[in-house]
Design brief:
By secondary structure, this protein is mainly α. It is built from 8 helices and no strands. It starts with 11 loop residues before the first helix and ends in a 6-residue tail after the last helix.
C-alpha cells in the first residue's frame, strides 16, 4: 500500500495552498489603518444617527424625572417641617420631645427612599431604551452605502457579526462591528483563513 504524502507548510503543495489565498490577503494588507479608522467613523456615525431619537428620549426622561423628584422632595420636606406631634401628648412628654428632635431625619429618610426608588426605576427605563435602540434595523439605503464605502476587511467583520440572516442588521450589530475591529477581528479572520488554506480545509458555510 502506498501512503499519500502529507502536505507540510514548507512543501510545494503547502506553498501552493498558501499562494492560493495570497491574492485575497494582498488586497486586505493594502488597507491602511487610517482607512480602517475612517470605516469605523462611518459606521459610528450611522449607528449614532439611528440611535439618536432614543438617546434624546432618554435625556428628556432624565430631565423630567429629576425635576419631578426635586418638586416631590421639596414638598415632602416642607410638609414634614410643619408636622405637629402635640396631638400625641403634652409638649414636654418624652415621646413628643423625641419625635420633635428626630422629625427632620424622618422626612429626609423618606426623601432618600424615594430617591432610591426613582433611581432604580430610571435605570430600568434607561437600559430598556438602550436595548430598544440596539434593535433598530439598519435601513436598506444605509446598508447599500456601507457596502459601497467600507473596505473589504471591515465588510468581512460586518458579515461575521451578522450571524442570523433571518433577522435584519441592527444598530447594535454596527456597534459590535466597531468593537470587533478595535479588538483585532480583522487579523484573527485573516489568520484563520491562512490556517484553513495551509491545512487544506474547506471553509464551513
Amino acid at each position: 500500500m502506498t501512503e499519500s504524502p502529507s502536505v507540510l507548510p514548507g512543501s510545494a503543495a503547502g506553498v501552493g495552498a498558501t499562494a492560493a489565498v495570497a491574492p485575497v490577503h494582498a488586497a486586505r494588507d493594502e488597507v491602511s489603518h487610517s482607512r480602517v479608522r475612517a470605516d469605523c467613523r462611518l459606521i459610528r456615525r450611522t449607528a449614532n444617527r439611528l440611535g439618536r431619537p432614543y438617546l434624546l428620549r432618554r435625556f428628556a426622561l432624565l430631565i423630567v424625572t429629576v425635576i419631578v423628584y426635586w418638586l416631590l422632595a421639596r414638598a415632602i420636606l416642607d410638609y414634614g417641617a410643619g408636622v405637629d406631634y402635640t396631638r400625641l401628648g403634652p409638649p414636654d412628654a418624652a415621646i413628643v420631645s423625641l419625635l420633635n428632635r428626630v422629625n427632620p431625619y424622618i422626612w429626609w429618610a423618606v426623601v432618600v427612599i424615594l430617591a432610591l426608588v426613582v433611581l432604580f426605576w430610571l435605570r430600568a427605563r434607561w437600559e430598556n431604551s438602550v436595548l430598544r435602540a440596539r434593535a433598530v434595523p439598519v435601513p436598506a439605503d444605509d446598508v447599500r452605502r456601507l457596502a459601497a464605502e467600507l473596505s473589504p476587511p471591515v465588510l468581512d467583520v460586518v458579515r461575521w457579526v451578522w450571524v442570523d440572516r433571518h433577522y435584519p442588521l441592527t444598530q447594535g450589530d454596527l456597534r459590535r462591528v466597531i468593537a470587533e475591529v478595535h479588538g483585532g477581528r480583522i487579523q484573527d479572520m485573516r489568520l484563520a483563513e491562512e490556517q484553513h488554506a495551509i491545512l487544506g480545509g474547506q471553509r464551513e458555510s
